[in-house]
Amino acid sequence: MTQPAGLQIDGHLVLVGLPGSGKSTVGRAVAKRLSRPFLDFDAEIEKREGISVSRIFAERGEAVFRGLEFALTQELAAAPPMVLAPGGGWVTIPGAMALLRPPGRIIHLHISPKEALRRLTRSRIVRPLLAQADPAMAMQSLWDRRSGLYALADVTVNVEAVDSQRLIDSVVALAHDGTLGIG
């Protein structure tokens, strides 16, 4: 059912995509425009665990980290509507997406592996899954494993084809009436 103009959907907006797709940056801006809280899963998990995501991966393994993401997702399922930015691998957790929709909307911020790596290299953000001898191959591998799961999102937006302000405007429009303003 389409919402009347001006009425926000009553669920979370969940931004998914490869590392470097802009989930946190776009999410913060969209949350501000919607007057909703924003939650970056990595930052929240680091705060709760008292160590970095990189250390969680190194010391406890990816499975433990995904378990922490799933527990946070379960907790958020009953929370008031927010803009959420889970880690890029959140989509690989069985049942995670189903916990938040409906009424939540999942938006895939699509970016090519090459551009994602370029952005991450430029930002100098340490990503545990990319700390390998061949980061380009690692990023391509992430895409190969996750692309089918990203395709399950309610909407896909190519972030390389749209400037950041138009992307933010479009995600805000989706929150209001269920459509994207990208032509």
Automatic annotation (TrEMBL):
The keyword Metal-binding applies. GO terms for molecular function: ATP binding; magnesium ion binding; shikimate kinase activity. InterPro entries: P-loop_NTPase, Shikimate/glucono_kinase, Shikimate_kinase/TSH1. Pathway: Metabolic intermediate biosynthesis; chorismate biosynthesis; chorismate from D-erythrose 4-phosphate and phosphoenolpyruvate: step 5/7. Its cofactor is Mg(2+). It is an enzyme of class 2 (transferase). One of its GO terms (cellular component) is cytosol. SUPFAM superfamilies: P-loop containing nucleoside triphosphate hydrolases (SSF52540). One of its GO terms (biological process) is amino acid biosynthetic process. Monomer. This is Shikimate kinase. It comes from Gemmatimonas groenlandica. The lineage of its organism: Bacteria, Pseudomonadati, Gemmatimonadota, Gemmatimonadia, Gemmatimonadales. The gene is aroK.
